[in-house]
Structure formats: C-alpha cells, structure tokens
Design brief:
The protein is α+β, with helices and mostly antiparallel strands. It has helices at 2-12, 51-60, 94-105, 107-132, 138-146, 148-154, 160-167, 171-179, 197-205, 215-227, 270-277, 280-291, 324-332, 383-397, 414-421, 438-441, 465-482, and strands at residues 18-20, 32-35, 38-41, 47-48, 70-72, 77-80, 86-89, 207-210, 231-233, 238-244, 247-253, 258-260, 264-266, 298-307, 316-319, 342-345, 358-367, 406-412, 452-454. The radius of gyration is 22 Å and the shape is globular. It starts with a helix and ends in a 7-residue tail after the last helix. Keywords: Carotenoid biosynthesis, Oxidoreductase.
C-alpha cells in the first residue's frame, strides 16, 4: 500500500513511474480471499485516520469517497474479559465511550479512561509532526530533547504498560490499553508509552469499514496510481537494486532484464531490501542497525465460512485470556501461546457473504514468527491444522462455539505470509516498537544510497494503513526535493 500510494503521488507530480510487483495482484498485505460467495480481508480489518487517504486522493485526483464507501464501525470493539465482563467501545464519541466504560467497569474506570485519552491527545500533538508527518532526523531528536514539556508528555523512557499501571486502576482496562501494542507487533511491557495515541486516534477520528472489504481501498489506490500514469507490472520479481556510480540506477528483474531509473523507491520489507536486494558492502551499515531491532510479532489466521447468524455479534470482538503476559512471553520467545487472545472480525456487510443466513469470520491470534530450527516451524506436518483446532476450541470455551456451523475454513500461518509478501518470518510490521530506541532503529525513508528510498510498514513512520500512507507522502516530498529531473522509465 505504501508503494502504490508513493507511485500515485509521484505520478501526479509528473514523474514517469514503473511499479514492479512480484505477485499477480498489487496491495501487499492488504489481501483478500473469495470462495463460494464468501469474501475475507486477510490484512487490516478497519481504517483509522482516513485523512491520510483523503489527502492522498485529493493530491492525485478526485476525493476518496468517489472511489470507496466508508462506513463507521460502531461499536469499534466488543471486549470480553476472563471474568465474563463485556465492554462495547463506541466509535468516535467521547460521551458515549465514557458512558459505556462506566456501565461496564464502573465510574472510576470511566474517569481513568477519559483522563488517559486527554493525556494521549497531548502526546499526539507532541509527536505527530516529527514522528509521523516528516522524516525523523537527528535535529528532531535534539529539538524534542530540549523541549522539556514535550519530553515529559511523551516520556520515551516509559512503556505502554507503565502508562496503564499508573493511570488505569481496573486491570481489565489495562488489558485494553496493552492490546494497542499489538497494532505495531509489539510487547506492551517494552513498547513506548507514546503508543497510547492509537486509542486516541480511534476515538478522535473514528474507525471505518470499507464497504465490500478493505481490499477495495487497495484496488482504489492501485487504480489511482495507474490514472496518474504509473506503469504497473504484475508478476514482476525484483532480484536486486542496481547501484552504479555510487547511486541507485534501477532494478534487475528475475528474468535478467533491467529497469533503469533515476530514483528507486523500495516498498519491500527493509530486511529484504538490505539483506537480499543490495550488494553486501552497500547494505552492511543499515543491516547492522536493523539487526539491533526486534522483528514484530506475526499472526495466525482462520477464515471461517459459517452457516447462520450469531446473536449480538459486532464487527470486532476481542476475547482476552486469563494470563495476557504469558501470551507475550510465548510469542516473543518463539513459542505458540497455549491460551491466546482471540480476535474476531465479522463485518455485517452483505457484499462479504453469499446470503443473509451466513457469516464470514476473520479470526486472528498473535503468533511467533516462522523460524524453523530456532523457533516455531509453521510448515511442520499437521502443526497448523492442530493449532487451528485449538483456536476453535478456545473460541468455544469463551462463548463463541461455531464448530457445528462451519462450512469450511482456510488456515493462514506466518509461513504463508512470509511466502506471499517476503516479510521475514511473517513479521507483520517489519520491526517491533519494543524498547525506547525502537523508533530510531526503524529504517529511514532515505537510504544511505543516493536515489534509493524506502516506503511502507517496515520503514518510518511504521506499519498500519494510516502510517504507510503517511510514509508515501514523506517519500514523495523527499524525492521532489532531491530530484528535480524527471524519472526515467
């Protein structure tokens, strides 16, 4: 998505753009599976901060809403806790959120959450410029370090877990906050406190479903890139980035041919770029830096085609385990969690199911990366299917037994994600945000090679639909400043 968005922006700026995509469909991790009238998004299941895409479309042609239909997701999530308590979190309404938290968890919890979101709003204002909307530079770090008020607000030395422990009295509400670390593939005990901006963004700017599935957004961005003049080459694998005369000169394809260019924008995972697509001497320094950063977690997915309807089911349901810390210990220790959090996405969208007496469920659990020999081998015979059975059993124990309604299922593992997207080990977000220096270890948009730029979830500012769109905006501006001559095709 970052690469397509960058292509659209660069095309609109008058550059001649060629997009090389290894698969037969563009969109990266925003995938889809359709079968027997059921359609499943296999990547993101909601859109937050839609302004990032509204800006993209306005800068490259007509408005976003001319291409896709955005529908508010309300409630955003239904949380089910181990003690049986349920919390339905409303969409984009401070008053409604306060009421819902108070009714489910008590007035103290409502006060605490409201105060947390007010704090997160201040963190958002302090970080959005240097950390999200511009390339992160040493000058930004120095400026932030000298701004004592901003430094105290962001508190880079604190973890997200610490924020929850200090500000939220109810352990169930702390579980809700901890979960936002997984939005960056991270452990809340080590992820930075600044990630509290994610629930603020959801509450302030809303959470949105794209009618027909998030894949429609990917198709719209791809179409916009083509409309701005980009040449889209599907099934075109890049074997290496060419560096000649000390700068990027194009790419060599798997068939041995080359595409010459004045500028190369890599939308691949940064570890793939520096580890396989560049000569070792050129990639040595950024690769050493990358190895100091911990890769993000991955995900184990079930696509369930179900008969009948589930009373009271909302778009998103999160089923928490009794021991949340054990899940993070397992996942980042290379082990499959025995009792994971289970996330169910079941959009009430007629375009995603064959009839009104059926449901299409996307079920996700946090999972260790595919690391045969040293960690979990997701390709081991029978392993994935056995774990799928275990997840269905966990769903049943937590009140959502759908085994007798199952028409069929598709199992997708971290190994599948690695094969499809070349994300090492199936790491969803590239590097995690674990540790206070994580943001500064994430690869910069400008590589050490002149004329080579990075875009997408594994580079600055990070993963997720909004951030990769911001990444594309940053890269397009950097290319415009660095290259005043048209790109060659």
């Amino acid at each position: 998505m970052g690469g397509l968005a960058a292509a659209a922006r660069l095309g609109a700026l008058g550059h001649s753009v060629v997009v090389c995509e290894q698969s037969e469909r563009a969109g990266g991790k925003v995938g889809t599976v359709s079968r027997d009238g059921f359609t499943f998004d296999t990547g993101p299941s909601l859109l937050t901060l839609p302004a990032a895409y509204r800006d993209l479309f306005l800068k490259t042609g007509g408005p976003l809403e001319d291409e896709v239909e955005l529908q508010p997701v309300d409630p955003v999530f239904t949380y089910r806790f181990p003690d049986g308590t349920r919390l339905r979190m409303p969409n984009a309404s401070r008053a409604a959120v306060r009421q819902a938290v108070g009714e489910s968890l008590g007035e103290q919890a409502a006060d605490d959450w409201e105060a947390l979101i007010a704090h997160a709003a201040r963190v958002w204002e302090a970080t959005r410029g240097p950390f999200l909307e511009a390339p992160l530079t040493a000058r930004d770090m120095v400026r932030l370090s000298r701004d004592l008020r901003a430094l105290r607000t962001v508190a880079p030395w604190r973890s997200l877990r610490t924020v929850g422990t200090r500000r939220l009295h109810d352990p169930r509400l702390r579980m809700v906050l901890d979960r936002y670390a997984t939005y960056t593939g991270s452990d809340p005990r080590r992820a930075p406190a600044a990630l509290c901006v994610i629930p603020f963004m959801e509450q302030a700017f809303g959470a949105w479903h794209v009618r027909g599935g998030i894949r429609r957004l990917a198709d719209a961005v791809c179409a916009r890139a083509v409309q701005t003049g980009a040449e889209l080459r599907l099934g075109t694998e890049v074997r290496r980035v060419l560096v000649e005369g000390g700068r990027a000169a194009g790419v060599e394809l798997a068939d041995g041919s080359r595409v010459d260019a004045d500028v190369v924008v890599a939308g691949s995972d940064a570890r793939e770029l520096y580890g396989h697509l560049l000569a070792p001497d050129v990639a040595a320094a950024p690769l050493r830096r990358l190895r100091r950063a911990e890769p993000s977690l991955s995900g184990f997915v079930l696509l369930l085609a179900l008969e009948g309807r589930t009373p009271g089911l909302t778009h998103h349901t999160v089923l928490f385990p009794a021991d949340y810390d054990d899940e993070f210990d397992s996942v980042f220790g290379g082990r499959v969690p025995a009792d994971p959090t289970v996330y169910v996405s079941a959009a009430d969208d007629p375009a995603l199911r064959p009839d009104d007496d059926s449901e299409a469920w996307f079920v996700l659990v946090n999972a260790p990366r595919h690391e045969p020999g040293t960690g979990t081998d997701w390709d081991a015979p029978g392993f994935a299917d056995a774990y799928a059975d275990s997840v269905l059993e966990i769903l049943a124990r937590r009140g959502l037994d759908v085994r007798d309604r199952l028409r069929w299922r598709v199992v997708r593992t971290p190994a599948d994600l690695e094969r499809e997207t070349r994300s090492p080990g199936g790491a969803i977000y590239g590097t995690s945000s674990n540790g206070p220096r994580a943001a500064f270890l994430r690869p910069a948009n400008r590589s050490p090679v002149p004329g080579l730029f990075l875009v997408g979830g594994s580079s600055h500012p990070g993963g997720g639909l909004p951030l990769v769109a911001l990444s594309a905006a940053i890269v397009a501006e950097m290319v415009g400043k660095a290259e005043r001559r048209p790109r060659a095709s």
